[in-house]
């Protein structure tokens, strides 16, 4: 079956760094997405990895290891506005997104 | 910036009513999707379309139907709403070989 696993909730301090992990199992693999979703709002795109390695985009970076079925999202210099759910999604062989339940990130002052 | 719109944003209706959730995008994207999401849960694909006159059911069993008569418009219809349909419905679109999906603001449906 297809499955995306990520922690349910994480807490971090403003100004710190946090890493959100995701393991995936999909029928075929065509890339891994990370989305941010604030409470009551729609998901917004953060990153897309299809090759192994680290992709950096400002304060956010995303890493992929295809051999391990593993990805992480790294958030640096945390701000209060980063409090949100972070959704990991794998693109399967049919180019459909398989979504995780999301990691709720709580930022404390 | 993504331009994808959903109406209504909030809807409270009684059991047995027929409703249509509207979704429109102005980006000319060929692919469109409907997802259902309950609080704290993953998105479940209920319908998708790869172009005009093309519609497919997703993984989540649904009593809804969709149509794609125009590229920009992808409405979802519930013939007879039930309390189990209470959820957030998200519409999304993407273009060609770019698999990044752009989401509308969602419709929060409550069926009493």
Description of the molecule:
The complex is a heterodimer of chains A (109) and B (112). Chain A is mainly beta and 109 residues long. Helices cover 0% and strands 57% of the residues of chain A. Chain A is built from no helices and 11 strands. In chain A, strands 2, 4, 5, 9, 10 and 11 form a 6-stranded mixed beta sheet that branches. A 5-stranded antiparallel beta sheet of chain A has the order 1-3-8-7-6, with no helix packed on it. In chain A, a hairpin with a 2-residue loop joins strand 6 and strand 7. Chain A is globular. The N and C termini of chain A lie far apart (40 Å). With 112 residues, chain B is an all-beta fold. Chain B has no helices and 11 strands. In chain B, the strands form 2 sheets. In chain B, strands 2, 4, 5, 6, 9, 10 and 11 form a 7-stranded mixed beta sheet that branches. In chain B, strand 9 and strand 10 form a beta hairpin. In chain B, 36% of the residues are buried. The mean pLDDT of chain B is 93. At the A-B interface, strand 5 and strand 9 of A face strand 5 and strand 10 of B.
* Overall radius of gyration of chain A: 13 Å
Mean pLDDT over the residues of chain A = 95
The largest sheet of chain B is:
7 strands, mixed
**Major sheet of chain A:** 6 strands, mixed
* Intertermini distance of chain A: 40 Å
Number of helices of chain A: 0
* Strand residue content of chain A: over 45%
Q: Are there runs of chain A of 5+ residues with pLDDT below 50, and where?
A: none
C-alpha end-to-end distance of chain B: 36 Å
Counting DSSP H or I runs of 4 or more residues, the number of helices of chain B is 0
Please identify the oligomeric state. Answer: heterodimer
